[in-house]
Backbone:
C-alpha cells in the first residue's frame, strides 16, 4: 500500500499534494475577525449647552478659564453650585457667575417706534403684539422694558441685557421717558402746577420729573417726563383730575429719540447711543 492510499484501499487526496483547491482553514489564528457594531452616540439635545461654553459665550472668559471657575465653585445653575466638568444646561436656566446672572446670547438693543393697536406683551393669544413688530430684528431673545398701552404709541426699548433692564426698573435711579400727551380739554394752569408739585392719590404720592405746555400748541397738549417703566401713573394723574387722555406718544427714552424711525419700524442702538444710555 503506498502512502497516498488509505487503509481501505481507496485513494484519498491530500490537501497539499492534490490539485484540488484548499478549503479555508479555521484553525487557531485563521478565524474571521468579527467587526464590532459602531457605538451608538447618544443624540445631543439642541436645547442644551455645556456649562463651560455657556459661561464663555456670556463674554466672561474663555472656555478653558470657565473650567477653572466651575471647578472652584464660582458658577451656579438654578441656585445650585456646579463643579462637574461637562455639565449641561438649558438656555433658559438661571446661571450665575460669582453671584451675577449671565446670559450666553449676544446682547441686543432694539428701539421700536410703536404704532397703535399692538399690545406690549410677550404672551401669545393676545392678538397683535409688539413682538410681532420686532420678530426679525435679532435671533436673541429680547423683551420690552416697561410697557405702552395697546392704543399708545412711541418708543419702546427691547433687550436681553439684564444690566440695562435693572437700570430702568431701579426705583431710585430709573430712566426718564418723555411723553407727548393730548387731553380732551385744556389743562388748567392750577392743575399743571399741582402735577408739578406732586400729590397723593389714596395715600400714594404721585410725582413726575417735569411737565409743561407744548410751545405753539393748544393747552390740551403737554409734555410730561416720568421715570416709571409703565404708563399707569399717567392714567392715574389725569383720571384723578378729571381729564381724559386722547393720545399718548412716548417721544424720548433718556437720550434716545424717534429721529429716523418711522412709526412701526425699529433700529438697533448704535454703540454711542448705548454708551449714552449706560451713563445715565
Residues:
Amino acid at each position: 500500500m503506498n502512502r497516498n492510499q488509505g487503509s481501505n484501499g481507496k485513494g484519498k487526496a491530500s490537501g497539499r499534494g492534490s490539485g484540488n483547491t484548499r478549503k479555508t482553514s479555521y484553525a487557531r489564528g485563521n478565524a474571521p475577525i468579527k467587526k464590532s457594531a459602531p457605538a451608538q452616540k447618544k443624540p445631543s439635545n439642541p436645547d442644551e449647552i455645556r456649562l463651560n461654553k455657556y459661561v464663555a459665550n456670556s463674554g466672561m472668559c474663555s472656555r478653558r478659564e470657565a473650567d477653572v471657575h466651575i471647578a472652584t465653585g464660582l458658577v451656579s445653575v438654578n441656585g445650585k453650585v456646579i463643579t462637574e466638568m461637562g455639565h449641561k444646561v438649558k438656555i433658559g436656566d438661571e446661571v450665575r457667575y460669582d453671584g451675577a446672572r449671565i446670559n450666553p446670547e449676544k446682547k441686543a438693543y432694539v428701539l421700536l417706534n410703536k404704532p397703535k393697536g399692538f399690545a406690549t406683551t410677550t404672551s401669545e393669544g393676545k392678538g397683535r403684539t409688539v413682538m410681532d413688530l420686532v420678530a426679525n430684528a435679532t435671533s436673541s431673545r429680547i423683551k420690552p422694558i416697561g410697557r405702552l398701552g395697546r392704543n399708545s404709541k412711541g418708543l419702546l426699548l427691547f433687550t436681553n441685557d439684564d444690566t440695562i433692564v435693572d437700570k430702568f426698573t431701579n426705583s431710585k435711579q430709573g430712566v426718564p421717558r418723555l411723553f407727548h400727551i393730548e387731553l380732551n380739554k385744556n389743562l388748567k394752569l392750577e392743575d399743571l402746577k399741582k402735577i408739578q408739585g406732586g400729590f397723593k392719590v389714596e395715600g400714594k404720592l404721585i410725582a413726575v420729573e417735569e411737565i409743561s405746555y407744548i410751545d405753539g400748541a393748544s393747552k390740551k397738549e403737554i409734555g410730561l417726563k416720568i421715570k416709571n417703566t409703565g404708563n399707569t401713573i399717567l392714567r392715574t394723574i389725569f383720571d384723578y383730575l378729571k381729564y381724559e387722555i386722547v393720545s399718548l406718544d412716548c417721544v424720548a427714552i433718556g437720550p434716545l429719540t424717534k429721529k429716523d424711525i418711522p412709526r412701526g419700524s425699529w433700529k438697533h442702538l448704535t454703540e454711542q447711543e448705548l454708551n449714552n444710555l449706560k451713563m445715565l
Observations:
- The first helix runs from residue 51 to 57.
